[in-house]
Write a structure and sequence with these properties.
- By secondary structure, this protein is α+β, with helices and mostly antiparallel strands.
- The protein has 9 helices and 23 strands.
- The longest helix has 17 residues.
- The two termini are 72 Å apart.
């Protein structure tokens, strides 16, 4: 690509010892491209324009002739266009016209229609000025999709997407035996938790918040009361609202901890069973101990008599003072585990930070985790009748 923009010439090299000449050209740092032999003593190659005149110096004393076959690249193309003002202005005008036309809708495509009347959809689209030649923006598409979803009887959901010059209308029709849209109970989508809105996608209803808004539990996110021009109607609000939710937890770790270690003393623990029935069990004399898993032996192969054997290792406890780094890591890890217990499994962790302090012989960690999750919940509107 850069080779084209800086311009190049296609040259024909004729003479004796062309290989030696090409080697000297390479050693001089001149890049030749697409070198090809035409016949003995003649080759073609491409060379950048700015390096062409360097060949004169290199061919001195050599029986070499160099001819330009073709000039190519952006500088020469621009020179040709510049010498033809009609072509230049015509090209610029075409680019401007195409740029303007590409911002408007020239085709309306309706997908997913089986029972719904396409003419009805087009008529409702025209009420929102969504016609061939119009230039709609994002909010208009959202408002129109909500209106069509509520007013078209056989449509469970309608989506409007712009793909270049095409307005794509996707219709999801309700099942034949499903309740009609008029039977839907009016409802709102409300916030289940406090948070800051990160994204909102409205399927039906009107958004009452936008990205960046701080909301509290119980706030209406998508309202089932839709207002369009002078009309107001109720619908079952639907959509997905995500927010950044804050979770925090603290944990205090004493700087002196009590730990256990094996003393090296051990005893065998045996259990005598007849089938699953335990008849006799020995106990270790240690107060604190760690036991291995039992190993079973059939003492009488012809009878269901079994002996289970395990090893009990004595444990002695002692106080150990934690180092500052160890105490901080332990407190941070436990606080983070407590905070993550409240974060939904399908949430995405956005960030986390911790503050540490030491007081009263304890290392305390406070960790704050911010997670992105869906906080919208559908709630029926109260029936005033």
């Amino acid at each position: 690509m850069w080779h084209f923009f800086e311009g190049y010439v296609i040259i024909q090299i004729e003479g004796v010892s062309i290989a030696g000449f090409l080697r000297s050209v390479t050693e001089a740092g001149i890049s030749l491209r697409n070198i090809r032999r035409i016949e003995d003593g003649t080759v073609l190659a491409e060379i950048p324009v700015k390096r062409f005149f360097d060949l004169r110096r290199l061919r001195k004393g050599r029986r070499i002739r160099i001819h330009i076959q073709k000039r190519a690249g952006f500088p020469f193309l621009l020179r040709r266009i510049w010498s033809r003002p009609v072509l230049l202005y015509g090209g610029l005008a075409a680019v401007i016209v195409l740029s303007v036309l590409s911002q408007r809708i020239w085709l309306i495509r309706i997908d997913g229609v089986k029972r719904t009347d396409e003419d009805e959809i087009r008529a409702l689209l025209s009420e929102h000025a969504l016609i061939v030649g119009s230039r709609p923006s994002g909010p208009i598409l959202i408002t129109a999709a909500n209106d069509l979803s509520a007013r078209i009887r056989d449509a469970a959901w309608i989506g409007l997407d712009r793909e270049g010059i095409t307005l794509k209308v996707t219709v999801k029709e309700s099942l034949p035996n499903s309740p009609k849209k008029t039977d839907r109970v009016p409802s709102d989508v409300i916030a289940e938790k406090d948070g800051i809105i990160t994204s909102i996608s409205v399927m039906r209803g009107q958004a009452r918040v936008q990205v960046g808004d701080r909301v509290k539990k119980g706030d209406v996110l998508i309202s089932g009361t839709v207002q369009y021009k002078e009309a107001t109607y109720e619908t079952a609000a639907d959509g997905t609202v995500c927010a950044a939710v804050r979770y925090e937890a603290s944990c205090a770790v004493p700087l002196t901890v009590r730990e256990g270690r094996e003393t090296g003393n051990f005893e065998f623990v045996r259990v005598l069973r007849i089938g699953p029935l335990e008849v006799l069990r020995s106990k270790p004399s240690f107060t604190y101990y760690r036991m291995t898993a039992f190993e079973t032996e059939n003492t009488m192969p012809l009878l269901p008599f079994y002996t289970d054997t395990a090893t009990a290792y004595e444990i002695d406890f002692f106080d150990r003072v934690l180092g500052q780094t160890e105490a901080e890591e332990l407190a941070w890890m436990r606080a983070r585990e407590q905070a993550l217990e409240n974060v939904p499994k399908d949430a995405s962790i956005l960030n986390q930070y911790a503050t540490l302090r030491t007081e009263n012989g304890e290392q305390t960690a406070l960790i704050v985790i911010t997670a992105e999750e869906i906080i919208g919940r559908t709630e029926e509107k109260p029936n005033d009748g």
